[in-house]
Amino acid sequence: MVVAEQPLDEAYGPIRQLGLNIGLAAGLLGLAALAAVIGLGRISARNRRLQSAKDAAEAADRAKSAFLLTMSHELRTPLNAIIGYSDMLQEEAENLGDAAKRFIPDLQKVQGAGKHLLALIDSILEITQLEAGRMELHLETFDISSMLREVVTAVQALAEEEANTLEVHTAGALGTMRADRIKVRQSLFNLLSNACKFTERGRITLNVSREPRLPADWITFCISDTGIGMTPVQMAQLFQPFTQIDVSTTRKYGGTGLGLAISQRFCQMMGGTITAESALGQGSTFTIRLPAAVVNDKVERREEAREVTPD
Ligand SMILES: Nc1ncnc2c1ncn2[C@@H]1O[C@H](COP(=O)(O)OP(=O)(O)OP(=O)(O)O)[C@@H](O)[C@H]1O
Ligand SMILES: [Mg+2]
Fold first, then answer.
1. Which atom of ligand 1 lies at the shortest distance from residue 229's CA?
2. Residue 295, Cα to own-chain centre: how many angstroms?
3. What's the gap in Å between 192 CA and the centre of ligand 2?
4. Ligand 1 atom nearest to CA at 258
5. Which ligand is nearest to the CA of 248?
6. Of 15, 166, 210, 247, which sits 20 to 30 A from 68 (CA to CA)?
């Protein structure tokens, strides 16, 4: 019998190789585990840094909101005194005869500037409250046509300033809606006053209609003008707070660039939208769409929370 003699080294070669491979794999696994631990450590350190940066940014944002709310409130008090006293002095000048009457135009300018400043402060107060989530909805049921009459009366003088005509068209009976009347009125006023501001010797049209829908109807307010219009690039910046399309526009037309941002947030709070269409030199159309029966999410969420945790 011939026994094939295999040298010991050769017989154990594959086993040794296997052992080496296992050792190598174990080493690699160990290295991978170490790398994973180091990596995880780095990620959690980075997460901690991100979290503390986020906390610091939120704290700064809260401080900014608190500062703006207090400042706006503090500025209103002396301004109201200036407006009130200039009104009173105008009345006295009227009664004191011709010599005093020559002060009336100056007193009117003081009052006009005071009212303008008050409107700016009100806008800053509003956007701050909106961004801090402190703005509430006050829902009431009101007649749409009479609300429109109030807005149109307020905006008529602005339209005439630039020799524009203002037309209102309503499709069928508008009936009533349940919403925050002041916020609807203010949003319409902001859009209409923009239309008047950016149009000269042109036409401003307000079309209002009621769209039957389930579970509730929708009301559409469409404001068109034949004014300066906007480019697509300019349109992309609309609705950003403190954004006016260009510096020359700002210098020419004034304003703070808050009207659209505030109106959009008001409409969103009521479950609605504002959209815009425009072409440079060919006028603009802004459309507000609101549910005829607005639901107050904030109040409902508070009530749900109260039901879950009864005291
Ligand atoms: N109807 C419009 N036609 C042309 N440009 C418009 C029109 N409405 C808004 N814009 C542009 O959008 C910008 C932002 O409008 P927004 O109402 O927010 O601010 P504003 O009118 O400049 O200032 P504020 O409303 O705070 O007095 C305007 O400055 C203007 O450039
Ligand atoms: Mg405006």
1. 4
2. 19
3. 9
4. 26
5. 1
6. 247
Position 269 pLDDT exceeds 90: yes
Helix or strand (DSSP H, E) at 220: strand 218-225
- Give the number of other Cβ atoms within 10 Å of residue 274's Cβ: 23
Q: Which residues pair with 166 in a beta bridge?
A: 204
DSSP 157-204: HHHHHTT-EEEEEEES---EEEE-HHHHHHHHHHHHHHHHHT-SS-EE
Residue 143 bridge partners (DSSP): 176
CA of 45 from ligand 2 middle (Å) equals: 46
- Of all ligands present, the nearest one to the C-alpha of 246 is 1
CA atoms within 13 A of residue 2's CA, in its CB half-sphere:
1
- State the closest ligand 1 atom to the C-alpha of 243, by its place in the atom list counted from 1: 14
- Tell me the CA–centroid distance for residue 163 and ligand 2, in Å: 18
What confidence tens digit (pLDDT) does each residue in 142-174 have?
Answer: 999 999 999 999 999 999 999 999 999 998 899
CB atoms within 10 A of CB 222: 18
